[in-house]
Write a structure and sequence with these properties.
binds tryptophan, two-stranded parallel ribbon, 2 domains
């Protein structure tokens, strides 16, 4: 039997999860949970590279964990855990630091952007962020990493670090590749449909959050930017309508032809209402499940504890090899 491939992704506990993250990534992760070994890590250690509120970090870490499960990711089929619970991430980061060049890290565009935005807090962790990310990925012998445009350079660096290490010591790390889902396009901003829907957009009307109340969802769709043509058709130059059609299609599984026929001769008002309702229907089970899970702290604790244990067992296999290769004396008291 062919070995199942491993997918790894890290999810920031800062900010909220949007409809774009759901349609573009998470809903696909739910579909592939039998086909791949999937490892999802809530990256609280990455989150402290910028100034943050500790209380919020603690809440948001658990929120993201609960939300991933509420979206349908099964914590027994997948490994869903909290990064700081698996200290192997920090340990491998240190070792990989010694195989990563200052020049390489200086060229990371995200580092340059973030340091320009936070000139008072250009800390070593921010600089080293991509090495922690490389450790995340390489610990699990990851084959595939779902990444957006903004993380491509970091993934490329992870490959370079892995290659450099393998070149010196033999095949220790699997070289990760970007994972591009077969379907599921980009969801655009509702207020500026030429830009991606982004959780960091300060305008709340631009984005649908997974935990938005139905009234908020309907209101945001009613206000969505369209055009003045009043024809529901998927065409160049109609980015607002194209975006709503893509969302409606993803939520209802109707194709564009069917949608065009359904709304032919009807105004945008009807179409926006239908799209809003389809999203309310899509997200309401997620919201219900989330509200249930977040109250059940015992269950969540059990899930993140078990999953951290499963992650650590895998991580240790890689780390043992790495320690040996670099010449660390073997720890003999393990599990004694
Ligand atoms: N840096 C990623 C982001 O900001 C999060 C992340 C951390 C990640 N470690 C990862 C993504 C490993 C993929 C693989 O979105």
């Amino acid at each position: 039997m062919e070995r199942k491939k491993t997918i790894f992704s890290g999810i920031q506990p800062s900010g909220e999860i949007t409809l774009g993250n759901y349609l573009g990534a998470i809903s696909n992760w739910v579909k592939i949970q039998n086909e791949y070994n999937c490892v999802y890590c809530v990256v609280d250690m990455h989150a402290i590279t910028v100034r943050h509120d500790p209380k919020r970090l603690r809440e948001q870490t658990l929120d993201v964990l609960a939300l991933l499960i509420a979206c349908g990711l099964d914590p027994e089929k997948n490994i869903i855990f909290i990064q700081s619970h698996v200290p192997q991430h920090a340990e491998l980061t240190w070792i990989l630091n010694c195989y990563t060049m200052y020049g390489e890290l200086s060229r990371m565009t995200q580092f340059k952007d973030k340091s320009a935005k936070n000139p008072d807090n250009i800390n070593a962790g921010l600089f080293d962020y991509p090495v922690l990310m490389a450790a995340d990925i390489l610990l699990y012998q990851t084959d595939l990493v779902p990444v957006g445009e903004d993380q491509k350079q970091h993934l490329e660096l992870s490959r370079n670090i892995a290659q450099r290490f393998n070149f010196l010591y033999g095949d220790v790390f699997t070289l990760p590749e970007p994972y591009i889902p077969k379907i599921g396009g980009r969801v655009m901003s509702l207020t500026d449909p030429d830009m991606k829907m982004s959780k960091s957009d300060p305008n709340p009307n631009s984005k649908i959050l997974l935990l938005d109340e139905p009234e908020a969802i309907m209101r945001k769709f009613r206000r969505a930017v369209t055009d003045s043509e009043a024809v529901v058709a998927y065409r160049e130059g109609k980015s607002g309508i194209n975006n709503l059609m893509a969302i409606y299609s993803a939520a209802t599984s109707k194709d564009y032809k069917t949608i065009e026929a359904e709304f032919s001769g009807r105004g945008y008002g009807d179409f926006k209402t239908a799209t809003g309702e389809s999203v309310v229907e899509l997200l309401s089970p997620v919201r219900t499940k989330f509200n249930e899970l977040i109250k059940n702290k015992d269950y969540l604790t059990r899930v993140y504890t078990d999953n951290a244990g499963r992650a650590a067992a895998l991580a240790d296999r890689t780390l043992e090899k790495v320690r040996k290769k670099v010449g660390f004396v073997k720890k003999e008291n393990k599990n004694a």
